[in-house]
Amino acid sequence: MPEYTDNELVELFRDADKKHYAFNLLVQKHQEKVYYFVRRMVIDHDDTDDVVQNIFIKVWNNLGSFREDSKLFTWLYRIAVNESLSFLKSKQLRSYLSLSTPEAMMVKSLHDETNFDGPEIQRRLSEAIIRLPKKQQLVFNMRYYDDLSYDEMSEILGTSVGALKASYHFAVKKIEEFVTAN
Amino acid sequence: MKMKQNISNQTNGTDNLPPVLENLRYEVTGFRVPNGYFDSLNSRIVDEIKKQENKSLLKSIVHSFRKPLVWAPVATIFVISLLLIFVAPLKKNTTNQVADEWTEINMVYDPSYAAEALLAERNSIDKELEDNDINYSEPVSLTGQNQPTDAEIEQYLKEHEIDADILNEY
């Protein structure tokens, strides 16, 4: 597979003859990162699959009008954040009809071996992240797992760098407490 | 004070993670993914896009037909076309067919009708002959002035090598 930069992929995508080819390359390049970002937010594989498909469908529909004043990578993350939060919100609404909260369902999913088979300490870490407020979850995942800089996170989430640092700090504190206490 | 220090460290790019989190940071997360999932994801996304595009095309057609200004003239043209294509020829054929059938039945069961039909046919032949402007003023009777002479007959028979006895047969 030829290596293209994100900008080259956007250029290719705008060429009608190479649109499908460029999109395939773009999906292959970013699919794993996007998948694991969403998976850490929604936990269940099938739910993640739905969200990831929606993300890339949005990319397909809107990449033509993408303005290159931001990076493709941050634009993609912004879509992923919005889609993940929308999914969790709809899950929250649906959970009013059931007896358990979405967080409880996610924790249950973590204890399902078909869904999670990592070491116990990783399970506890994931459970601690689930229990965080959504904004802190996003900030922690982006920084801890994806190594995004605060500037990039600020561009994606539309929040000041200072607020992001504070969110990350509190997230780390809460997670540490949860992991060491259990 | 310690909290402020930590946040400040993060400002400088150092996360100052507790050891337990530092150790787990680059380990595999433990989420199970079905085998070959990432190989087929691409094609499934493309299939889904095609499905949605077909759906949206159908939706836009249905949506446009919700406006009476659009569908009313189209529906009128459609109905008129259907009438012209199917109903009009059917009606014409049916009339002719029924008329023909009735003529046949009458010919069979009503002798007077048959006589009338034959008369009409003859009249039409007469009309046709008149139209063709044929002159019947010359007498055509075999006993008229145009009767050939015996000499002419003999000459004709000779020329065509016909036996003269044939005349005795009539």
What attributes characterize this protein structure?
heterodimer, A: 182 residues, mainly alpha, Rna Polymerase Sigma Factor, Chain: A, Arc Repressor Mutant, subunit A, globular, B: 170 residues, 6 helices, elongated
List the helices and strands and how they pair.
The complex is a heterodimer of chains A (182) and B (170).
Chain A: H1 6-14, H2 19-42, H3 45-62, H4 72-95, H5 102-110, H6 120-130, H7 134-145, H8 150-157, H9 161-181
Helix pairs in contact in A: 1-2, 2-3, 2-4, 3-4, 4-8, 5-6, 6-9, 7-9
Chain B: H1 2-11, H2 19-24, H3 37-65, H4 68-109, H5 111-131, H6 150-159
Helix pairs in contact in B: 4-5
What this model shows, in words?
The complex is a heterodimer of chains A (182) and B (170). Chain A is mainly alpha-helical and 182 residues long. Chain A has 2 domains: 98 residues, Rna Polymerase Sigma Factor, Chain: A; 65 residues, Winged helix-like DNA-binding domain superfamily/Winged helix DNA-binding domain (Arc Repressor Mutant, subunit A), CATH 1.10.10.10. In chain A, 75% of the residues lie in helices and 0% in strands. The longest helix of chain A is centred in the first third of the chain and has 24 residues. The radius of gyration of chain A is 18 Å and the shape is globular. The model of chain A has no long low-confidence stretch (mean pLDDT 91). Chain B is mainly alpha-helical and 170 residues long. Chain B has a domain of 52 residues. Chain B is 69% helix and 0% strand. Chain B is built from 6 helices and no strands. In chain B, helix 4 packs across helix 5. At the A-B interface, helix 2, helix 3, helix 6, helix 7 and helix 9 of A face helix 1, helix 2 and helix 3 of B.
